[in-house]
Amino acid sequence: MAFEFRLPDVGEGIHEAVLVKWMVAEGDVVHEDQPFVAVETDKAIVELPSPVAGTVSILHFKPGELVHVGDVMISFATKGEKITSPAPPKNKVKQVEKSDETTKPSINTGRASSVKPLATPHTRALARRLGVDLTLVLPSGKGGRITDSDVEAFAKNESGRREEPAQPVAASRVKVVEPAFPIADTGSEPVMAGTIQDTVFGSVERVKISRLRQVIARNMTASKHTLAHVTHVDEADVTDMAKLYRKVKDQVETSHGIRFTIMPFFVKAAVAGMKKFPICNASFDDETQELVLKKYYNIGFAADTPDGLVVPVIHNADRKDMIRIAGEIADLALRARDRKLKVEEMQGAGLTITNVGPMGGLFATPVIPLPQLVILGMHAMKDRPVVKDGQIVIRKMMNLSVTFDHRMIDGMVAAHFLREVIDLVENPEMLMLRLV
After folding, report:
1. Tell me: the pLDDT tens digits for 302-341?
2. Is residue 399 part of a domain?
3. Is 275 exposed, middle or buried (0-12, 13-18, 19+ CB in 10 A)?
4. Annotated catalytic residue: which of 68, 225, 232, 406?
5. Are residues 272 and 328 in the same domain?
6. Is 36 left (phi over 0), alpha (psi -120 to 50) or beta?
């Protein structure tokens, strides 16, 4: 009998994916658990295995198209079933150009959906304030997402409904999503095809941004619109830590075959701060108005890739020594650059650390990754003249920042948390006592 494979929920909060590459063709025979398609979710490429053995009868989507959870992606003819000619593609979801989104009215069918509507926490909070049932609002945003404008327009409509548009959107105004980057591991930069246009000021090139950059833009905007960002900055004397690091670096790398950086020192110090100030290892459930205090200690860290920043996660960092943490950081960062991280390897962080020190600068104000409440910033380590014991001496100094959600965390708590981190990196012998 026929088997229709629908896009599953491949990770927490994942509602859609871009089909990157089919690994099979119509007519191919596949076995159970054989990977047959690669899809790009938020920041990860995932290969999906076939749940059945059979023959591919219909591929319902083309590479580059957007697929929602629950859409039929592929049909298999299983044992004993006759293969029919491929039918026209169905269940396709195409994106409308931005110019259409601003003019296309939202449509309401008046029927509540059983599927949880897609909307940012900010939009959900707005809907609650205006008394709008999101299940009654059809979205105008990309990927089927309800926007603030949809909610506001719905609230202003006295009948709670909108008229159907007089004319459907013209086919010429619809386009599919281009693959964000080649699936092959070539080690090269992604090829971004641009279109040259002439303006009154001269020529410009319009380049479609990658799927990852779209996700980053959406998430950063949601964070800035949802959280009350405040950044507190302090400085740390890391002279003793730097000496200890230089002393053990070569031995650790030779003995364990890993790249050892200073990041594990800050991971262990951050864990200590999270234990002392649990609010720094929490999230806020906007729908239930509850704090979610986490009893585990997972640390995310910002990793640069050719397509943008991703945040791999070191799970259970409190149970791991610095050598193991260093090995995980090296492995996760390498696979992040190659876009080979698993979805679960980018989930569950209670706090994120970003190291902007290699780029220089005095300090920065990082954006907090939702749904976390805190991000710790490491900045450049520099030799500076400081007063110590009444004498001017040269010490290795480093600015550290903590950006926090002021809705949930008071400035005094954030300052004490950062001071706990600083006290430990300034006294690495105390940090050594917290190896596990």
Report:
1. 998 887 889 999 999 999 999 999 999 999 999 998 888 8
2. yes
3. middle
4. 406
5. yes
6. alpha
